Amino acid sequence: MISNQPPPEKMMFQLTLRRRGISDQAVLRTMEEVPRELFVEAADRDGAYRDSALPIACGQTISQPFVVAYMTEQLQLQKQHRVLEIGTGSGYQAAVLSRLAREVLTVERYRKLADTARARLEKLNCHNVEVMLGDGLNLPGNIGPFDRIIVTAAVEQVPENLVERLEIGGILIAPVGPHQGVQTLTRLIRTEAGIERKELVEVRFVPALPGVAREL
Fold first, then answer.
1. Interacting residues of 22 by C-beta distance below 8 A, sequence separation 6+
2. How many Cβ atoms from other residues are within 10 Å of residue 98's Cβ?
3. How far apart are CA 146 and CA 168, in angstroms?
4. What is this structure's pTM?
5. How confident is the model over 126-174, as pLDDT tens digits?
6. How many Å apart are CA 72 and CA 31, to the nearest integer?
7. Smallest Cα–Cα separation from 106: which of 155, 150, 67?
8. Is residue 63 among the annotated active site residues?
9. Which helix (H) or strand (E) is 73 found in, with range?
10. Which EC number(s) does UniProt give (predicted)?
């Protein structure tokens, strides 16, 4: 008899997210639906659903599931939103965003990562995601505005040119702090009166670097 129950590691994955405070049902459902094992290196597939970051190509990482879920929940996404992601990496965060928003533009400085992520996202029919090779810290002026912006690499300060691309009522999430060490996940909301800033939780991300990588 074939069981319809999810495998134990996926059940524990969902339980861990709930225990750590993720309560948005749309986010939880999306985290369950997106096959994380397709976004990690082949050697790490057995541990894809552990709550830990894992290495990927070009010296980058795929964030731990809780951080992906938490950042996504803090964005308060709605179906009509246009989202900008800085730092495509494996494409996992973009895949999660794609199920909760109308359109996602994700920017990656490594060609290898951009090409691989694009192929994965196409395979999963994430047709509302555009993967762009470029410098996420120095975007062309004609890109934007956005309802939501998520930065998935550490910045010492939130880049002003990203804040300027936020719609009124828009939310930006970024890990802010020293490149080597601990950062604080920070949420900015753009209002008619200005920017509301709130520090959330401590995190560790690889640094956001300027420019497009000359190799890889």
1. 28, 31, 66, 69, 70, 73
2. 23
3. 9
4. 0.93
5. 999 999 999 999 998 888 899 999 999 999 999 999 999 999 999 999 9
6. 10
7. 150
8. yes
9. helix 65-75
10. 2.1.1.77
Please give the Cα distance from 180 to 163 (Å, whole number). 24
> Exposed (0-12), middle (13-18) or buried (19+): which is 102, by Cβ within 10 Å?
middle
Q: How far is CA 19 from CA 16, 96, 154, in A?
A: 5, 20, 26
CA nearest neighbour of 35 among 23, 26, 48, 24: 48
Greatest alpha-carbon span in the chain: 61
Measured in whole angstroms, how far is the alpha carbon of residue 58 from the centre of its chain? 17
Read off the tokens for 151: 């930065």
- Strand 194-203 to 183-191 pairing: antiparallel
For residues 28 and 15, what is the distance between their CA atoms, to the nearest angstrom? 10
Phi, psi of 28, rounded to the nearest 5 degrees: -60, -40
Residue ranges in the chain whose pLDDT is less than 50? 1-3
Given the residues 52, 63, 90, 98, select the one marked as catalytic: 63
